[in-house]
Amino acid sequence: MKLLPLHTLILLSVFLHSSSSSSCSDGDGRFEPLFVRAGENATIKCSISNPDQDGVYLNREKVTSTDVLYYFKDGTLTPEDSVKGRVETNKNFRDFSVFISNVSEQDGGVYWCKFNKLDVYTVSEKTYLIVQSGKKICSRESECNFFIYWIVIGVLSLIILVLAGVLVKLCCDRGQYTPKQHPSNGVYEVMRGNTSKALNNPAYESSQRCTRSALS
């Protein structure tokens, strides 16, 4: 069984737990994963509450965002070259679907629909199409969600462990800290030693006794 690449898992976990901002209405920024094996067909679903639309764009984002196709309400379908001859629609704006046949890994990415009524645009929910060259890693949506959530938990646990290690190191470094000993002033040490020697000198003590006797 072929597993997803690490960078794909990380991107998927981020996509599922983040929201993207949009200037268009009804764009909630959520992603739904869609796992498809290479050579199979994929269905991108886009629902909208108001079916009174002039047309709809199907957008895909990998590194940059591109228009995969545009469907006009009169039935005109304008696909890009990479999907020409491989896409169809159900022609129903309320529950719009795009069918992509014989998908390849190049078809993978984040898809969403952008409906337009004159100059007013409405964005649908987003679908993350993941195309695998081998066997599917899961056959049902519940299995895919379970797998994805474990990946997210693993990434978050790794981040927590790294932060905990940094905190432990900081605490250990703080516990081993000892203040620096400032060097003493050599001049004062010499003066202190000379004073002590003078007080212990017999000649000095004798002169002090003579002075006290003369005063008395």
TrEMBL record:
Residues 5-124 form the Ig-like domain. The keyword Signal applies. The chain crosses the membrane at residues 147-172. Keywords: Membrane, Signal, Transmembrane, Transmembrane helix. SMART domains: IG. InterPro entries: CD7 (IPR039090), Ig-like_dom (IPR007110), Ig-like_dom_sf (IPR036179), Ig-like_fold (IPR013783), Ig_sub (IPR003599), Ig_V-set (IPR013106). Pfam families: V-set (PF07686). One of its GO terms (cellular component) is membrane. One of its GO terms (biological process) is adaptive immune response. One of its GO terms (molecular function) is signaling receptor activity. Residues 1-21 form the signal peptide. PROSITE patterns: IG_LIKE (PS50835), PROKAR_LIPOPROTEIN (PS51257). The keyword Membrane applies. This is Ig-like domain-containing protein. It comes from Ameiurus melas (Black bullhead). The lineage of its organism: Eukaryota, Metazoa, Chordata, Craniata, Vertebrata.
